[in-house]
Specification:
- By secondary structure, the protein is of the alpha+beta class.
- Helix content is 37%, strand content 22%.
- The chain has 14 helices and 18 strands.
- The protein has helices at residues 6-10, 18-21, 29-39, 44-53, 59-63, 89-94, 157-175, 187-197, 226-234, 244-264, 271-284, 294-304, 335-344, 351-354, and strands spanning 55-57, 76-83, 104-112, 119-123, 129-132, 135-136, 146-147, 150-154, 181-186, 200-204, 208-210, 215-217, 220-224, 285-288, 312-316, 319-322, 325-331, 374-376.
- The chain has a seven-stranded mixed beta sheet, with helices on both faces. The chain has a three-stranded antiparallel beta sheet with strand order 13-10-18.
- It is globular.
- The relative contact order is 0.20.
């Protein structure tokens, strides 16, 4: 995903075609919101069915008042999580043991600026060691139980032990920013959404064979179905140095590929296709209770309709190898703090953070001289 310079951000959007400006932002939130917005005026039964598809969690009730103050300027912060649950259809797609637990396999903080014409997407590496604050569990048999704080634990364990509320509180503690919304998508939901969109197209520079994710692609351009796209965003050991940082780059590129595919689908002339996507997307989502209805998603979509693919800056939170464990990360300061401070002030991502961004392993050769993956068109 191409970063936009400060100068480009200051330029008006009038030069962009209106249809391009109406493309929305991310895998679950934006794709879902736009199709729901288009379908919202449909029949009562369809509205009722879509409404009942959406699963929601009352984050506000669980967190109470012990959190950063809400901004009154119009900025919006959204925590988007990809769950690695193996329950139900997820186990068939992802493998592993269905032990009833789930972690946040993918985590992104989406900051929408005051004018709602630009968004910064910050990926949070799941292997980052953090101080997890005390929180109230919203999941499993421990629902409603107060969990004690813990230091030096992996970021993705916050979701595992306490569900969405604990994940949100941990992110708010890390960033100092209030999360206005929470959106979750699991393995099966992602794959089904890709299939509903008609798949996505990627171009690789060499063959990719990753037995861990199940991704096997020949060099060149390939149209991926949902299962293959899921393998692409989960590919880790077959890309670059095998770290989660490399996989994050593929995930960010996949967002762009999905936006491009969604932009190519003429939903207005295909009511059946439109309904399939809306039904699939709403069924795949878990949201905070403020977004847990079709009406709320329509309003959400309308507030973001000025953001297109070129209006997005995607970065990874600056990290360094943890002194206590070479397989773990810690936030790199002062750059990580500078990033959150800039977003709190609704300013552009600092150049010091942009300079630290890892090269995309999709186009970078490994130490042995063999390129591992490819670019997303």
């Amino acid at each position: 995903m191409t970063d936009e310079s400060n100068e480009q951000r200051e330029q008006g959007d009038e030069r962009r075609p209106r249809s391009r400006r109406r493309r929305l932002l991310a895998i679950a939130a934006w794709s879902t919101a736009v199709v729901v917005a288009l379908l919202g005026a449909g029949g009562g039964y369809l509205f009722w069915k879509l409404n009942h598809n959406i699963k929601s969690v009352d984050i506000n009730a669980s967190l109470g008042s012990d959190r950063p103050a809400a901004s009154g300027s119009g900025v919006m912060n959204i925590l988007v999580l990809g769950s690695d649950s193996r329950s139900g259809d997820n186990g068939k797609l992802a493998g592993g043991t269905a032990d009833g637990t789930a972690r946040s396999d993918t985590a992104m903080v989406v900051h929408v600026n005051q004018r709602h014409d630009h968004a910064d997407v910050v990926s949070l590496p799941r292997d980052t060691l953090v101080s997890r604050p005390s929180c109230t569990s919203t999941t499993g048999t421990g629902r409603g139980r107060t969990l004690p704080p813990a230091d030096g634990v992996m970021f993705n364990t916050a979701y595992e032990v306490g569900g969405p509320a604990c994940a949100v509180k941990t992110v708010e503690s890390m960033t100092g920013m209030r999360m206005n919304h929470f959106i979750e998508l699991d393995f099966a939901g992602f794959a089904k959404l890709i299939d509903a969109l008609g798949g996505v197209t990627v171009t690789t520079t060499v063959d990719i064979n990753d037995t861990d994710s199940g991704l096997h692609l020949k060099a060149g351009t390939t149209h991926l179905n949902g299962t293959q796209a899921l393998a692409f965003v989960r590919t880790r050991h077959g890309v670059g140095d095998g770290s989660d940082l490399g996989r994050i780059q593929l995930q960010q590129q996949m967002i762009k590929s999905i936006l491009q595919q969604a932009d190519s689908v003429d939903l207005l002339t295909s009511p059946g296709k439109l309904y399939d996507i809306a039904d699939t997307a709403t069924s795949a989502l878990t949201t905070d209770s403020d977004l847990g209805s079709v009406t709320s998603l329509i309003s959400f979509a309308q507030s973001l309709k000025g953001i297109g693919a070129k209006d997005v800056t995607a970065v990874t939170m600056p990290t360094a190898t943890a002194p206590s464990d070479p397989n773990r990360l810690v936030a790199l300061d002062p750059q990580a703090t500078d990033l959150w401070t800039a977003l709190k002030r609704d300013q552009a991502v600092p150049e010091s953070v942009l300079r630290l961004q890892q090269a995309n392993p999709a186009t970078v050769a490994t130490a042995s001289g063999t390129a591992q993956a490819g670019t997303v068109r």
